Amino acid sequence: MSRQDLLAVVKVKKLSDFRTIMDTIGERGSQGCEICKPAIGSVLAGLHNEHVMLPKHHGNQDTNDKFMANIQRNGSFSVVPRMAGGEVKPEQLVAIGQIASDYGLYTKITGGQRIDMFGAKKPDLPDIWARLHQVGLESGQAYGKSLRTVKSCVGSTWCRFGVGDSVGLAIDLENRYRGVRAPHKFKGGVSGCVRECAEAQSKDFGLIATDKGWNMVRILDRYIMFYIRTAEHLQRTAPWVESFDGGLAKLQRILIDDELGICADLEAEMASLVDSYEDEWKKAVQDPLVRSKFRQFVNTPERREAVEIVAERGQNRAADWPKEFPSQKFTLASLPPKSEWKWVPLAAVSDLAPNNENTTSAAVRYGDSQLAIFHVPHKGYYATQQMCPHKRAFVLDHGIIGDKNGELYVSCPLHKRNFKLDNGDCINDGDYSVLAFEVRSEGGKLLVRLPPADELDMVIGTSKWMVRKDTAKEMGGIAATAVGGCGGDGCGNPKLEW
């Protein structure tokens, strides 16, 4: 089923959550997969614009939407406040600088005229956003398949060549479409004259001022809404236009001439999305239940780094990954016999907030080892090690739960290695496997059957697998491409890990 067909069925049948959609038009009782869950999440967001961390939606969110921040390779996150049109006040710049300094964040100006702060720990995200809210900064939705930015030049505000207020219009457009979820991210640009300093023609939508005014403003609502309705999941606007039956000429007849008689509907649907906007992070900061989801471990306030932080050009960043990690299969053979294992209470049932609408998960610490615990509606509780061995990333509790032929698995949020919850086997890459553990619920507590902590630490302890400054050197080079000439098999190699 195409995304367009899925959206149409969901809309006509008035379906509003993953479980109902699967039971109505999918496989009843199925947990879906790492592909269909985000697609369904995208459709629901494009129709209803509900908060992505509601229990019925949270399990559908992939990688970045899961915690409303872009996950980085060391398991930390980036923070990107909205700076509509690239405009920012001095006191807001001061606040950003102070926050970055206080939390040791790496800062960089983005191509969309805003500031990105890298290296934020998950437990710190609510407090960081609370401080940003105090100076009037809101979520930039850099994590979502949604509007990112509307870039602008300074236009007639300052430029001697400007014939239009490009900053003002960019701010109006960005504030209008902020938070609107689409099949993929989309960006805009507004140039104050035909010199085109904002590069509006290279964006998903763009406007250029002339002495006769602005072009295309009145049909943007229709264009974006029709894109949401008809594009495939993860399809950007350019390939959507290129593949559209009838091409650009047909789109012009639909969106300008109203050939299909749907323009009023498109405008009304966009108005509904615009009117339902809320700053997702503001709501998250104010909701204690949502804030509780940002703990690194639910059984201790202690934190654990999984990648060494190094200094570069006066800022902190994560140590390099090696070009390749060796394959790694964790098995029970490396542990004491199960007769020596014990049931260990590691979390409260309430820590996972189990429900019948979607899956939930949390990470716990046991000695120096990290574990991920999952709840699957009508199936029960499962646990695995927290580290995905593909890149030594301690992130499996962030992964989407799916099932294949009735076998449940967790999909690593970084590079989609899928590990079975019952035995840890990787179903799409035989070079890897993880440890899986039994879990039971007893008296409001979750107990995991485990070997002694020191024995488990020798196998999956964080210190043992931490990526350090010297790791890449020891394993033969870093993953990043060095600046220099082409040579060997590197250039034009179609098989890229990234």
UniProtKB/TrEMBL annotation:
Residues 344-448 form the Rieske domain. GO terms for molecular function: 2 iron, 2 sulfur cluster binding; 4 iron, 4 sulfur cluster binding; heme binding; metal ion binding; nitrite reductase [NAD(P)H] activity. It holds the Pfam family Rieske_2. Keywords: 2Fe-2S, 4Fe-4S, Heme, Iron, Iron-sulfur, Metal-binding, Nitrate assimilation, Oxidoreductase. Its cofactor is siroheme. GO terms for biological process: nitrate assimilation. It comes from the Eukaryota. Transmembrane segments: none annotated. InterPro entries: NasD-like, NiRdtase/SiRdtase_haem-b_fer, Nit/Sulf_reduc_fer-like_dom_sf, NO2/SO3_Rdtase_4Fe4S_dom, NO2/SO3_Rdtase_4Fe4S_sf, NO2/SO3_Rdtase_FeS/sirohaem_BS, Rieske-like_NirD, Rieske_2Fe-2S. Gene3D superfamilies: Rieske [2Fe-2S] iron-sulphur domain (2.102.10.10), Sulfite Reductase Hemoprotein, domain 1 (3.30.413.10). Belongs to the nitrite and sulfite reductase 4Fe-4S domain family. This is Putative NAD(P)H-nitrite reductase. It comes from Trichosporon asahii var. asahii (strain ATCC 90039 / CBS 2479 / JCM 2466 / KCTC 7840 / NBRC 103889/ NCYC 2677 / UAMH 7654) (Yeast). The lineage of its organism: Eukaryota, Fungi, Dikarya, Basidiomycota, Agaricomycotina.
